[in-house]
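Researcher: Next sequence.
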Amino acid sequence: MATVEVSFSALPVHVRTARLIVAAVARRSGVPETLLDEVRLAVAEACSRAVEAHQRHCPDEPVRLELSGDGRRFEVVVSDAVPGDDAAGGADIDPVSAASAPGRDGSDPSAGPADLGLADAAELGLAVIQGLVDDVKIDTTPKGVQIRMSWPLRDA
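Model: Next structure:
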């Protein structure tokens, strides 16, 4: 499969479109039907995190998706353009602590997502992705955050 590249403006309405495109390409690439909901949800979380970061720091920069397959795995890379030294852009994000320690800052442990700050919400989204995807890699660079996820293909 050739690489499919998609760029979209940092608007929440485009997350749904990205999710639909990824699901269609994943299905055509040979991702088992049983994994398609996981693919859709993980991509939606990654794109939503990127859109939020872009809206705060670089609303004119597009969010980027790369979709590819090597015959064994289907890979999705979601990239933002928020510098890595910006806390809302992904630096100091620790998805493990976000998943395992609600209220770690002394706040009410029953607090919901609306009660979280931007950095906590980004951490929670990354924790959800790590819980959904067995093969995920999150890289923070000076140019932005890149979330690389992959799933096995049928008969691979």
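Model: Confidence is low (pLDDT under 50) at residues 87-116. Residues 99 and 127 are 5 Å apart (CA to CA).
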